[in-house]
Each structure stands twice: as C-alpha cells, then as structure tokens.
C-alpha cells in the first residue's frame, strides 16, 4: 500500500506519528509542506474518520500543526531524558483543552457502521485530539515506559514488541541499514 506523501504511521501513537512528520528518521525533510499533505496526514493517521471533509485546511492549519509537532517533540524527548519543562506541559494542556470533533455512528451504503463527523472539523479541535493523545500517553506510566528512541535515527516510537527490546523505528529501514553496515564492517567492504 502506498503511503501518501511518505508519511509513516508506525510510531505507535497519533502524537508520535505527528512528530515523525518533521522528517526525523529515514524520511529526511519536512513532510507537512502544505494543506494537502496535512489533510492526507489527518486522514492517514485516523485523526478524522475516512471521508471526513477537510476543506478548511489551509496554511494557518499547517503552521499550527507544525507548532504542536515541535512542542510534542520537545515534551516527549524531554520525558525520555528525565523531565519536560513546566511551561511546555502547560502549553500542551492548553492545546488539549479545546473540544475535539464529535464522531457519530452512521450506516454506510453497505449497511456497516462507520464513524462520521457531525460537522466539518475546526483546526483547534483536531489539534486538541492530537494533544489529548499525547496527554494520555504521557500520563500512563506503562505506556510512557515503552517510549524509545531509534538506535539508527532520532525517531521516537512506542515499543510494543513482546520482549520490549525493539531497537529501531523500523526493522525494514533503520534495522536493515544497521545490519548492512555491520556486515560491511565484518567483511571489510565499504559503501
């Protein structure tokens, strides 16, 4: 399955997937380059139900999501190292305070139940949904204890592996790079 705009949705939480859009890890470079990529990320990360109208996404939304992403990155990395600044926690709590968009159950054309938004979402509500995900993650000591930083790049992910010994954001990307580098060192071959 092709992933839109090169987004990754494997960090384990929506808030961590937003942090990954900064181009951390194997995908270097800014990924939230405009309204269309942000709308694709919101849908792909399941911040909104499939087919939700995202007509209001504009450059202001992009700036606000980038600001939240920067804040989340600071808070999560600070918690990995010890303790986030009180001012950053207050800013995160403020972002989480807006009411997120209400999702209602509807019957689809095939008769199956699906989620749908009652009204087009606003930026503050979607930011709040992502911020609340971060609050829930960081307030849960078990989940917070599963936060890891990739041994091959700077991406932060939630380690849900059975033995809690996952070392890379992706075995296929960073893990493979590490294995190739180790093999080249052993065999004396260069890149």
Summarize the model shown.
This protein has 191 residues and is mainly alpha-helical. It has one domain (4-147): Jann2411-like domain (Jann2411-like fold, Orthogonal Bundle), CATH 1.10.3300.10.
* CATH uppermost class: Mainly Alpha
CATH topology: Jann2411-like fold
Q: How many structural domains can be distinguished in the coordinates?
A: 1
Q: What's the total helix number?
A: 7
Based on Cα principal axes, name the global outline. globular
Q: Helices and strands: which structural class?
A: mainly alpha
Q: Please give the share of residues in helix.
A: 40-55%
Strand order of the largest sheet: 1-2
| Distance between the ends | 30 Å
Strand content: 5-15%
Which blocks of ≥5 consecutive residues have pLDDT under 50?
A: none
Q: What is the average per-residue confidence, as pLDDT, rounded to a whole number?
A: 85
Question: Rg, please?
Answer: 18 Å
Under CATH, the homologous superfamily reads Jann2411-like domain
Quantity of strands, as a count: 4
Structure explained in plain terms:
With 191 residues, the chain is mainly alpha-helical. It has a single domain, classed as Orthogonal Bundle (Jann2411-like fold). The protein is 47% helix and 8% strand. The protein has helices spanning 14-20, 35-44, 59-81, 86-96, 123-139, 141-144, 171-187; strands spanning 103-107, 113-117, 147-149, 156-158. A two-stranded antiparallel ribbon has the order 1-2. A two-stranded antiparallel ribbon has the order 3-4. Strand 1 (103-107) and strand 2 form a beta hairpin. Helix 1 crosses helix 5. The radius of gyration is 18 Å and the shape is globular. The mean pLDDT is 85.
